[in-house]
Amino acid sequence: MSSGSDNFYGGIAVFRGFARLMEPSLYSPLPDDWTVGVADIVNSTRAIAERRYKAVNMAGAAVIASVTNALSGREFPFVFGGDGASFAVAPADLAAAREALAATATWVREDLDLEMRVALVPAAAIRSHGLDVRVARFGPSANLSYAMFSGGGLAFADAAMKRGEFVVAPAPPGSQPDLTGLSCRFEEIPSARGLILSVLVLPTRGADPAAFRKLIEDIIGLVERSPDAARPVPTGGPPLRWPPAGVEYEARAWRGGSLAWRRAAVLGYTLFAYLIMRFGIRLGGFVPEVYVQQVVENSDFRKYDDGLRMILDCSAELEGALQQRLEAAAAKGIVRYGLHRQDAAMMTCFTRQATRSDHVHFIDGARGGYASAATALKAMAV
Length: 382
Prior knowledge:
Elements: E1 14-15, E2 28-29, E3 35-41, H1 44-49, H2 53-70, E4 78-80, E5 84-89, H3 94-111, E6 116-122, H4 123-127, E7 134-138, E8 146-150, H5 153-162, E9 182-183, E10 189-190, E11 195-203, H6 209-225, E12 229-230, H7 247-253, H8 259-278, H9 288-298, E13 299-300, E14 302-304, E15 308-314, H10 316-331, E16 335-342, E17 344-350, E18 360-365, H11 369-378
Parallel strand pairs: 1-7, 13-18
Antiparallel strand pairs: 2-7, 3-5, 3-6, 4-5, 7-8, 9-17, 10-17, 11-15, 11-16, 12-15, 14-15, 17-18
């Protein structure tokens, strides 16, 4: 049976304007009977060193796709972290989410040759340690919203998972989640302003909340005022070629038939899609120009999940200004941070139905992204 708390996320008002991100009134406490899910790639640093960027991002996005499909498309808060993902589910959805997580961990191991650990942590257990999970909804466009998390609960859940607590065991060999709609067909997106910068900023333990809030607001303000920074997805959308670079990953995400058959099917399907996009062919309710515009508007290139994450197309001068402010804040014990520069960004997509406007597009750096920024952050003294 569902409880009244099952409608929690749908009742949160969507806010516009990313500069409002740190306003406490935007965040609602997760109900005690909800559960936080976390997943990450074990030793993602090695996978990044082996240049397996697409595989790492595909694994992180697969968590969101599998849980979404398991819940029949019902809304739930989630956040993509590059080499993993976090989310929260209502009591009525917990069993389905657990099954999807277990199957995803097995699929990641068998089809992507990566090890994924997954865990489900009750919100009540997080609060018993003096932390909280609070959720807001940011609308980058009129098409959809993304969840933002505060309170320290996601960081606690991630650390608990890495200690081996609340772990969900992988499903039996051969298990495959429903990853319908998951793809990585777009090509890398080269920087137009000099570099693609991955930014990760977290509060230190015991940091003054007011000082941390002011810093995050200053950072966002600096980026939004600067003519030297922009979203990494250009107005015309990311490059699209055929055959796409992600054919192998998409074939492995499909269900049914041999891998060879799936490769052939994906090649045929993506050729059909490429021709439609390349020549602007309208098909039923699908309008290529509108879809590309929505891809740009829906791109998830900045977020907050107990810390600020951004993928920026910016100049070296803006990178220097950001580094200077972050170094000063770190010296005062306010933040830990990680920056990682690269020459391109990449996109992993989840489109449940091409004619709907709420398709989601996860952005990361194409040469290590958030995972490499996290490595830089970990090198700082806590």
